[in-house]
Automatic annotation (TrEMBL):
This is Late embryogenesis abundant protein LEA-2 subgroup domain-containing protein. Its main location: membrane. It is found in: Membrane. The chain crosses the membrane at residues 7-29. Keywords: Membrane, Transmembrane, Transmembrane helix. InterPro entries: NDR1-like. PANTHER family: LATE EMBRYOGENESIS ABUNDANT (LEA) HYDROXYPROLINE-RICH GLYCOPROTEIN FAMILY-RELATED, OS05G0367900 PROTEIN. GO terms for cellular component: plasma membrane; plasmodesma. GO terms for biological process: defense response to other organism. The lineage of its organism: Eukaryota, Viridiplantae, Streptophyta, Embryophyta, Tracheophyta.
Amino acid sequence: MGSCAKCWGIIISILAIITAVIVVCVYFTNPSDPSFTINDFYVSALNLSDISSTTTAANQTIFFDMRLHNSNKAMGAYYDPVTITFLYIPNIKLTFVVGEYTVPKFYQHNQKSMYVRETVATRGIAPYNRMVTSSVFIVKVSTKVGFKSPAYRKKGTVVVVANVRVGQTGERDSKRGITLFESGVGDHGLGCLGFRMSLLILSTATLLMIM
């Protein structure tokens, strides 16, 4: 009876060690890229409701509110300068950069958010065509993000984009947050799911061997 209890104690200890290793590998060696969400977007020059105002026509600025979120449960993120580029698409044949904004490099704790609310002076936005009910902007974010832990030290490139449709009030059409998606692959983004599945398969095989 005593030897049986000792065996079970050894098995439980082994299972605890395996679980701890999996947790460390998942949370400390394979971080997820941060997410970027546009919560507000306003282009004064495209506000048709105040088209008679010379102030509106002269105000060539873009106001935006963007959320930068680190969803990792156990790893903080080190951001290089974050470049936010605004491209205007007045028609299907023309796309050009109208402005840029740079967030200085910073550190973000795990599961924390940072909000960037700024007004950007543009290089000029063509007068709104009254026959068109909305215009499209492309918002592009590019940076390098590093994660540091006892088991992981690496920095990868993050490039994400989103289309923002602006209506006749100069505001974005969507009432919900607009999430930017990858246009380029960093060094740690897409391998996350496959890596975790491999760990799950390995741990399951180990348990079967023990039992």
